[in-house]
Amino acid sequence: MISSLTRKSFLTAAVLAFAAACSLPAAAQDDEHPGLDVIYVPTPHQVVKRMLELAKVGPDDIHYDLGSGDGRIVIAAVKDFKAKKGVGIDLDPQRIKEANANLAKAGVGDRVTFLRKNIFETDFSEANVVSLYLLSTLNFKLRPTILNMRPGTRIVTQSFDMSDWSPDHTETVDFDDNGYKGTRRVYLYIVPAKIEGKWSLESSAGKIDLDLKQHFQRFAGTATTGGKTAEIKDGKLSGAAIEFTLDIGGKPVKFEGKVGGNTITGTNWTAKKAS
Ligand SMILES: C[S@@+](CC[C@H](N)C(=O)[O-])C[C@H]1O[C@@H](n2cnc3c(N)ncnc32)[C@H](O)[C@@H]1O
Questions:
Q1: Superfamily of domain 2-190
Q2: Between helices 45-54 and 72-79, what is the axis angle to 10°?
């Protein structure tokens, strides 16, 4: 019954499955029938390729797929995009079996592992690329953990976004999977460095006190120097890369730098965290 649903609307199917899983009596959620948070629906291969392209997966990357299904995204990341390591996490033993069978055919050796675990009880902090095809509610639940990952970690999701965290990029991907045609919306998020708070910036223009208010990869705030306070404009983060503009002497001056913990280093300026 579930497989016939997969050919229809995943949104409807997933909502139904989510509701069904929530209402399953505890006794029914035994080892072979785990209490899944979302049913299995595979990502079409053309969409997998585009997700991995958007995440710019390459030889330096460790990729995790949370809810990895038949393993196709992890296997493609290692086989086609040369990621150094891939890990798929899925709670359903049937999916792990399928993923391991696909892995055996893929010839990527021991660079890929599939673990039968709950994504909410698994440490995936070693990843610098994470893919998700879950539900909005589940993305939202994972969001605090994701935002604590290393700045620059790429997160690709399909069909479901990250609520009020705007994507760094989103697009619609067409697919034709043996006559099953459709489109999927894909989203790329880059984990931003944490810069909320007060900073003391030293530059050729003198000392400037910054007070930054962060909203994911955007920020605003004030810059105070010589007793005058101005608004910070166009504050943006892409991982650890930071940029913003200040009006200095009536002229807009663009600041670009890299956040490394409590220091931000620019070409001819440095800022230290004050609080
Ligand atoms: C929509 S499918 C996505 C499969 C694969 N990522 C893809 O895109 O082809 C979601 C997967 O999440 C798994 N899943 C659901 N709840 C889970 C949980 N709490 N922990 C681990 N896996 C889970 C399901 O078994 C299913 O394989």
A1: Vaccinia Virus protein VP39 (3.40.50.150)
A2: 50
Per-residue pLDDT reduced to its tens digit, 47-105? 999 999 999 999 999 999 999 999 999 999 999 999 999 999 999 999 999 999 999 99
Residue ranges per structural domain of the chain: 2-190, 197-273
> Which residue, judged by its Cα, is nearest atom 27 of ligand 1?
69
**Whole-angstrom Cα distance, residue 1 to residue 100?**
24
pTM of the model: 0.90
Q: Does 133 contact ligand 1 (Cβ within 6 A)?
A: yes
> Quick one: pLDDT band at residue 205, thresholds 50, 70, 90?
confident
Ligand 1 touching residue 118 (CB < 6 A)? yes
**Span from the CA of 49 to the centroid of ligand 1 (angstroms):** 18
Beta strand segments in 117-179, E? 129-132, 154-158, 169-177
**Atom 13 of ligand 1, nearest CA residue:** 67
